[in-house]
Amino acid sequence: MKEALSKTKSFLQSDSFKKYAKRFGYFILGLIAILLLACGGLSIYFNRHKTEIIAKVNTKINENINGKFHITDFHYKFLTGFPYFTLALNDVEIKDNKWPTHKHTLLRAKEIEARLNIWSLLHHEINIHKILINDADIYIYKAEDGYSNANIFKPKKKKPKTDKEKPETTIDQVSLSQVHVIIDNHLGHKLFDFDVASLESKVNYDDDSWQTNLYLKTKINSLAFNTVHGSFAKEKVLEGNFDISYAEANQKIDIKTQKLKIGSDAFDIVAFFNIGKSNSLFGINIGTDILWQNASNLLSGNISSKLNKFDIKKPIKVNCDIKGDLNVEGDPKIVVQADVRDNELSIPDGLFTNCSFKGIFTNTFKPEKESSDPNSAIILTNFKAEYESIPLKIAQAVINDLEKPIATGVVNSDFDISKLNGMTNEKILHFESGHAKANLKFQFDIVDLYINKPKFTGDVDIADATFDYLPKNIHAEKTAVQLSFTQEALYIKKIAYKHKKNIIRIDGKIDNFLNLYYDAPEKMVVNWNIYCPNIDVKQFLGVLKNSPKQKVAEKKPVKNNVNFTNQLRSVIEKCTAVINLKADKITYGALTATNTQATLQMLNSKVLLKNGKLQTSGGSINFSGSVQPSGNHYVFTSNAQVNRVDIASFLRSFNNFGIKSFSPKNIRGRLTSNANVAGLMSSTGDLIMNSMKGKLDFNVNQGALINFEPIMKVGKFAFPFRDVENITFSDLSGSLNLRGEQIDVHKLTISSSVLNLDAEGIYSFGRGTNLALTVPLRNSKNDAKLATKEERKAVREKGIVLHLIAYDNEGKMKVKWGKKDKS
């Protein structure tokens, strides 16, 4: 190594090396001298021929334009662009002939450099190698009538080529720096506005066609294909390389670029522009992987303002295709396709997780109509996601008309219904267990980008559902539901419901369900068919209670969603339910009834009963009436026909109607009655006896009074030798008017084995009894053997007749002689 360095050092110090180095230095100095002489010669040439050169430049430009070309100053740039001759033009303006009308200058530049071919220049020809435009404004204007200031350039005259013909002047390179470019198309309502920081282009010519690879860095102030709707990619910086070609034959520019940066994202773009007078069609295809918000912010304001209400968490693959006509008013045709995989989709109504789908946006949904918001649509295919942990599948959904959006599609879901608990803003239903399957066609409006009034057709199946309906404190177990939604009605095919010891099977129908559910729930009529093997009426009275009013408390803001729970609650409270009821066994306290049938109508927590009938206590009852909650009680009305029921059992079932003077063990027989009464029941469903008002007519056949204290007192006073403790009677009937604690006895007739008795007046469950008694003294023991009612009536009051008053004396019943006060 040392030996090599030593040899190198010796060579550099040798006389031969110094000799050649000296000659090489002279050669370099000679080249510099020649260069300086050449540049000086060019400068001398320019100064001597300045007038001629400028004249040729002006002539060359003006012979190709219809307008005015103005240069304030120009000079030769020494050594710049050598070996080309660089001419700098200062304060350049180009105006078309109609500038006084529209006031838009086509070109205004502080400086334009033109690098000319020296050889051509020495042959008195202008051949421009490169144009550099610095600190300039370019304004291309097109008026409503189609006139453009760019038409300043005269069309070339086609001439047959000859070998002797001089070639056309060409520009091999173009460079722009700090150039503001505006393309203002009033005919098509389009505005393109760019601040070009840098543009470099080298052009290759093929006859009248050319190709270039262009580098561009620019800020997009406006890329508006419709100025009414705003700009695409507004305020974004665009930077990248373009392969551009122009074909003179069809006057078409083709553009292709890869990894073009717009903002912080990269795009692959293929585009074409037809620039012929009769053909101004264009097309732009853009592909990228991008975040939703970034993509949305690249679109025009009318689209991005809507899309920004949505979001997709991770980048998505997007392809955008734009086609239109630069000279046609209105929006271009836009088709955006997106591929979403395992992502999160946020919408104003909530969040979809584990979301995958393919989406298409088009503003030309119906090809025969123009591209616009009303003709726009978003199409989703193969949508899979979880909404509030509920899995959803949608084969295809369409959101049509972005001015008044309507969404349609088919949704499928299969999930445990306990997942529904997280969806409600207000606690109405709480699900403990169960499973649901749904296959529904849906349609809903989108108002301010929120789902409004969703409507469904299709089927819903729920199995083994256990839930609580909190407003009514209802707990249901092992409930099965089958629903079928149609355009005409909602069919409740099957509901199997268990509540405490009650089992209910339901089917039904709601006509015009889809229209009434949101707009007029008070007009909705739910027709139910209910079959109950066993039901306890008292346990169901809680269903009628008005939901307790909740205190108004400050809440955290909640999402403005479909308001499903609030709407459901409103429908439940406002709709009318008509129920056709059949029950094998009904219990009401101590009353047990079988073979029950009735029609019930439920409206605003009120139940109307019609055409009811049941069997109980060995007889039957036909009834109608109503039950309605009122505070802590229930108001009821009843119109009942009782047919030959066992009176002791019947009285026992109704707690003896609150009568204290005798109990069901004091009487037996078959009761037939007509009752039209109203009153109150307690919160547990027990009758409040002193609240009852109305009319009651009754008749007891094959009856007996056993140890009935009022009769016994009268009998011991008037008939001490007769058996008044065990009285059989052939007729026990009356007509009563109920007034709370008191009963107006219009007529009470007793035809018995001991005596006959007629009574009228007032009987009280508390204080105030005042009954007038008519008691014939004759022995009526054998009256029952008389053949006819007329014969029994004829002998009823023969002999001595006693007139007595049964009255209240400090809570105890007393009897005295006397007649009813006629006054």
Low-pLDDT residue intervals, each spanning 5 or more residues: 550-562
Overall geometry? rod-shaped
The average pLDDT score comes to 80
Strand content: over 45%
Largest sheet report:
37 strands, mixed
Q: Tell how many strands the DSSP assignment holds.
A: 37
Percent of residues in helices: 10-25%
N-C termini distance: 155 Å
Question: What would you report as the Rg, rounded to the nearest angstrom?
Answer: 52 Å
Structural class computed from helices and strand pairing: alpha+beta
Q: Give the number of helices.
A: 12
Please supply descriptive tags for the structure shown above.
37 strands, AsmA-related, rod-shaped, 37-stranded mixed beta sheet, alpha+beta, 15% helix, single chain, AsmA-like C-terminal region-containing protein, AsmA, 823 residues
What does this structure look like?
The protein is an alpha+beta fold. The chain contains twelve helices and 37 strands. Keywords: Membrane, Transmembrane, Transmembrane helix. This is AsmA-like C-terminal region-containing protein. Residues 26-186 form the AsmA domain.
Strands, helices and their partners?
Blueprint lengths: L1 H11 L2 H48 L4 E10 L8 E12 L2 H4 L4 E10 L1 H5 L5 E15 L30 E13 L4 E17 L2 E16 L11 E12 L4 E11 L2 E10 L6 E10 L1 H5 L4 H7 L3 E2 L3 E10 L7 E15 L2 E13 L14 E11 L2 E11 L5 E11 L12 E19 L2 E20 L4 E12 L3 E11 L2 E10 L1 H7 L5 E12 H4 L23 H11 L1 E13 L2 E13 L2 E11 L2 E12 L2 E14 H7 L13 E15 L5 E20 L2 H10 L7 E14 L2 E11 L3 E9 L5 E7 L12 H7 L5 E9 L2 E6 L6
Parallel strand pairs: 4-5, 24-25
Antiparallel strand pairs: 1-2, 2-3, 3-4, 5-6, 6-7, 7-8, 8-9, 9-10, 10-11, 11-13, 12-14, 13-14, 14-15, 15-16, 16-17, 17-18, 18-19, 19-20, 20-21, 21-22, 22-23, 23-24, 25-26, 26-27, 27-28, 28-29, 29-30, 30-31, 31-32, 32-33, 33-34, 34-35, 35-36, 36-37
